[in-house]
Amino acid sequence: xxxxxxxxxxxxxxxxxxxxxxxxxxxxxxxxxxxxxxxxxxxxxxxxxxxxxxxxxxxxxxxxxxxxxxxxxxxxxxxxxxxxxxxxxxxxxxxxxxxxxxxxxxxxxxxxxxxxxxxxxxxxxxxxxxxxxxxxxxxxxxxxxxxxxxxxxxxxxxxxxxxxxxxxxxxxxxxxxxxxxxxxxxxxxxxxxxxx
Amino acid sequence: xxxxxxxxxxxxxxxxxxxxxxxxxxxxxxxxxxxxxxxxxxxxxxxxxxxxxxxxxxxxxxxxxxxxxxxxxxxxxxxxxxxxxxxxxxxxxxxxxxxxxxxxxxxxxxxxxxxxxxxxxxxxxxxxxxxxxxxxxxxxxxxxxxxxxxxxxxxxxxxxxxxxxxxxxxxxxxxxxxxxxxxxxxxxxxxxxxxxxxxxxxxxxxxxxxxxxxxxxxxxxxxx
Lengths: 196, 224
Prior knowledge:
The complex is a heterodimer of chains A (196) and B (224).
Chain A: H1 4-17, H2 28-33, H3 38-65, H4 74-96, H5 98-104, H6 108-112, H7 115-126, H8 131-161, H9 171-186, H10 191-195
Helix pairs in contact in A: 1-8, 3-4, 3-7, 3-8, 4-5, 8-9
Chain B: H1 17-25, H2 38-43, H3 48-71, H4 81-103, H5 105-111, H6 113-116, H7 122-130, H8 137-167, E1 169-170, E2 173-174, H9 189-223
Antiparallel strand pairs in B: 1-2
């Protein structure tokens, strides 16, 4: 177990500095597809955090027991294990807490094969995070996705009410908004040298 | 009525192979028109070479999986088709990953995890579900080549434009000499979003202009 400061920086780095959406371009499909409404965006973000935590655990288990023997199976086993674990947890939630299922359920199949989820497992592997570090990393990355989604949804709700050129409506507008958001997030890059 | 376990296939018709190929290049271009598979398109296109490598890898994976899915389409049970497609795609991605690592280790290092992430590129799964699983092998290959080609073109265009603006070079060749002040933001993450946004804007403008011209033509013919 490393010191708590180390875990804190893993969290902050994934949340702000190396934000999955805005600086690694991961999970863009839901980022542009589902960011129309603030409420939906928030729920999708929470579902994302949830799936990421499960993914991180599954990846830790795979890394410990399976992959040392068969490294070339990494991709296939990640995808299959993550997808089936999420499916399984979804069934459990449906039985235990229908309310939670109604809030997050519809998003779960949608994000299981999202590139942010797979990237989380791959990054965790290549950085050799342990179980606790992996979970903190997942929490930060999921939180970062949620943050980006919510910011984006707020901006798009605002943009809908203002007059913008007809050509800009739609994806082009979203991309340019995302570019400006991403520029703002670059400002966090200075955090590391100041605090670490 | 119960859904049949194996897919019911439409009768084979001699589809126009050229049309299947060409549509992916421009009219249904995956990046500029359908806006699919954006994650790799933005993440690795900070130079023309990276765009080309990523596009080439995606092209290879798309072609291979379309071939296999189309060849096996009568034997893949419908309820597990998505899982089957993903397993097939993941196999080809693993091959591409190992190939790139062996042939061009520098490029492989720079693309990093994004080669593996081709597995979850929605463009590839989308083509299997929408096209290859319902068509014979030749049209499926033509479609895959067109879509993969269109994707590669878009990636090279994005990467090239960002490299020219952000580094003052194209495919590593310096263009403007030592006095060029690079627009660094273009090779950083925000530049990806901004450049794709601008390119989509250009595409929308071209389409708008064409539609206007067509409407004017119709109006003139009605008046005559």
